[in-house]
Amino acid sequence: xxxxxxxxxxxxxxxxxxxxxxxxxxxxxxxxxxxxxxxxxxxxxxxxxxxxxxxxxxxxxxxxxx
Amino acid sequence: xxxxxxxxxxxxxxxxxxxxxxxxxxxxxxxxxxxxxxxxxxxxxxxxxxxxxxxxxxxxxxxxxxxxxxxxxxxxxxxxxxxxxxxxxxxxxxxxxxxxxxxxxxxxxxxxxxxxxxxxxxxxxxxxxxxxxxxxxxxxxxxxxxxxx
Lengths: 66, 149
Prior knowledge:
The complex is a heterodimer of chains A (66) and B (149). Chain A contains one helix and two strands; from the N terminus they run αββ.
């Protein structure tokens, strides 16, 4: 009786844990997508930028620090 | 303007890229030095942090302040000193100034959205401009020459 119970229970626990992990992973990916990548390139030939390289909208700002 | 653009990037993290161009105005004594210092910080991967602190200290900029900000960001001071005297950085900033002049930039900030000057100065106006360009980007290209057989 106990053995049958364990056979049913263990896969259920495994599926539950796997489900939790998958949800967590999906949420982590969402967070990654929501955060604009901070580009900290040091190459002088390109301008400092923030956001994805293939963004459909590019905003160029000419700024003066004073 | 910088905080507004940051808010815009937060709202459109996958759709908007922000590109910084230096355009130090001649009437501001420390503007060019500030740009040079920011690019020197960039060499150590701290451009945006330095950029934000420059704008926070905009009324008190001085040679001393540039070094103080660099220390606050834990930059390698020896390298920073070397880089603020690097003519390659000066040339890089001059390149942005020439580009701005060729694009008829007269004041700052001047914002270009997909190559067109934008007068949007509120988050709502910037969002509307971005949405407008996103709509254009989503539109499938028109097929020309769909002639009759």
